[in-house]
Amino acid sequence: MAHRRPGGRLRIPGLLPLLVLAAACGSPEDRDPAADALPFPDAVSLTDAGGRTLALAEPATRILSLVPSVTETIHRMGAGDLLVGRTDYDTLSALQGLPTVGGGLGPSLEIIRTLEPQVVITFAGASDPRTARGLSAFGIPVFAVRPDRVADVLSIIRQMGILTGRGARAEALADTLEARLAEVRAAVEGLPVLRVVYLLGGSPPLAAGPGTFISDLVTLAGGENVLHDLTGLYAPVSPEVLRAREVDVILTGEGSPLDPRLTAERRVAEIPAWVEIPGPGLGEAAWVVARALRPGLPGGA
Fold first, then answer.
1. Maximum distance among all alpha carbons in the chain?
2. CA 296/CA 117 separation, integer angstroms
3. How many CB atoms lie within 10 A of CB 202?
């Protein structure tokens, strides 16, 4: 997440399947009639968050993800062997042997080029147009994602299953996440709704708005985001505005310094930084949020 302190001649393996797919559209006399019965049964066609279509004749076998939560998703579905690199923010021990391309925003395009990925997963939006332009100039396909909401995360999991040819594993991972979220929803059903604000630190502090997966987790855990009128996904909020809101619990990441004016006579609950990663761990993150709001809440692992 961009706001956190804390995702010779070039040979592109992915071009070969694309050329094969294009050749299949040649003249009738050049085509094998038997191929018409079931042409390219493993073909991949996905529309990314920017509205662009990625088309491959078969699932990708060389992938670079610049989005740490997506990198984790690919690893969790058992497709980590398809990753050819990582960013400096990918901290999973299983990935440390991979070459790093720098940050998820503004990575080294030359290093990416040497890794010869068939597709690069990037953040969608205007925050880093240079990367998408540079990769396109090299002829490297880009697939952009926006893991803003919980629903987006579930969709991305299923998209990565299609991209990697591991659809069944992706569905199982998504089903597990949905089941964990349902458990949290059931655990807080009928309990009083708590008024919550989630602060990410800074001065003035960044707060999570209503269009974020963090706000989704708060709602699912039986809370109400009191900054329901916040403009943007994450935006700075003045101490005066926060003091004027009725707040039962202030949630914040571990080690985030907060202005004492915000915390006076209010309960503050710190939660692990990994909760701010919009990936397959959101089921566990929902339980962390729920227990931060209601210590001693039964259920879960």
1. 80
2. 47
3. 17
